[in-house]
Design goal:
alpha+beta, Glutaredoxin, 6 helices
């Protein structure tokens, strides 16, 4: 009986840790693209939209852990971008359905995809986030994309 109780306790603890790791949007990120665009226009910033499968996509999980949840990333990226996470979790069908129109609008064909938008909502860059797996690489790339956009 003790073994069953112990196993149940361990299983519940692992389930709680796992679900909490995927449930919350990282600090500093929005989940509402429409509101983010309004804010971007008011603050004269661009918008970084990450399309993710937070509970099933290994590269998405790695990017969240290694880049998107890092304070140094959020602090630096937020100076020029409004950060938006649009999640397509298998464990939350309602969330995935809510975000599906944006995946269709931006023709998302894989995860994790990042789409960079100007404050008017016009796309100026897109890429697979996992191409830049560290905070420094990712920030360098999005800074360069912003400079390129301003030159066009």
């Amino acid at each position: 009986m003790k073994a069953i109780t112990w196993l149940a306790t361990v299983s519940m603890g692992v389930a709680a840790l796992t679900s909490s790791a995927f449930a919350a949007t990282p600090e500093g990120w929005s989940t509402d693209l429409d509101k983010a665009l309004v804010k971007a226009k008011a603050e004269k910033k661009s918008v970084l939209v990450e399309f993710t499968g937070s509970d099933w996509c290994p590269p998405c999980i790695a990017m969240r852990k290694n880049v998107f949840s890092k304070k140094e990333f959020v602090d630096e990226a937020s100076k020029k971008y409004i950060l938006v996470e649009l999640d397509f979790p298998k464990g939350d069908k309602a969330e995935a359905e809510k975000n599906q129109p944006f995946a269709e609008k931006y023709k998302i064909d894989g995860f994790p995809t990042v789409v960079l938008l100007n404050s008017e909502g016009k796309e100026f860059s897109r890429f697979y986030a996992s191409k830049y797996p560290s905070t420094d690489e990712f920030l360098k790339f999005i800074d360069g994309a912003l400079v390129k956009k301003d030159l066009d």
